[in-house]
Write a structure and sequence with these properties.
Strand content: 5-15%
Shape: globular
Number of domains: 1
Distance between the termini: 37 Å
CATH architecture: 3-Layer(aba) Sandwich
Helix content: 40-55%
Number of strands: 5
Largest sheet: 5 strands, parallel
Mean pLDDT: 84
CATH topology: Rossmann fold
Strand order of the largest sheet: 3-2-1-4-5
Oligomer: single chain
Number of helices: 7
Order of helices and strands: HHHEHEHEEHEH
Low-confidence stretches: 1-7
């Protein structure tokens, strides 16, 4: 792992540790991302994958609506935090320490795969590689990235882009790209 990425993961884990089992942090996160979360569950998926699960707050919400959920993150420390949060705020999930560039799942194993706050940390080619990998194991992919209007800064290398820039990067995936209501 590159030193810069390692330092950012360490910083993220430090932030996540502060939020572990915090009801206020969970509710704030769900409220902030409610449109994205409802997009994930609206098709009533039975099997879902969160890639780049982080604190697991989004999986906690989604777990209440689906039968089988897998949370994947590259960092064991983060997975431990996500497990604690799931125990307090969610239902059930499986947890996998894994690399989003090399997913260990069979083709179309999931009805939906989702991620928030992951893609903006990568270059355009890496984003496309991630989405190809995730698209192979899921029937639908829902992602959320911070926009130019995102009020919180913090993990150093976020690429805060506008809608048209994201549309261009994601063009081959035929995305539905829009702002959250709160971003307008």
């Amino acid at each position: 792992m590159h030193m810069k990425l390692h330092d950012q993961r360490h910083e993220y884990v430090s932030i996540a540790k502060v939020q572990v089992e915090s009801r206020l942090a969970y509710l704030r996160d769900v409220f902030t991302h409610i449109e994205y979360l409802l997009e994930i569950v609206k098709g009533k998926p039975q099997k879902a994958l969160e890639f780049g699960a982080g604190t697991g707050f989004h999986s906690c919400f989604v777990s209440k609506f689906i039968r089988h959920l897998v949370c994947l993150d590259v960092d064991m420390r983060t997975i431990k935090i996500a497990k604690q949060n799931m125990k307090k705020f969610g239902k059930e999930a499986s947890f996998v320490v894994g690399d989003v560039f090399h997913l260990p799942f069979r083709p179309k194993s999931f009805d939906v795969a989702f991620s928030q706050g992951l893609l903006e940390h990568f270059g355009n080619d890496e984003i496309k590689q991630i989405l190809r990998e995730v698209s192979a194991c899921s029937k639908m992919v829902v992602v959320s990235v911070p926009s130019l209007n995102y009020p919180q800064r913090g993990l150093g290398d976020e690429r805060l882009l506008g809608l048209e820039e994201w549309r261009e990067i994601l063009r081959e995936f035929k995305p539905k790209v829009r702002y959250y209501m709160l971003d307008l």
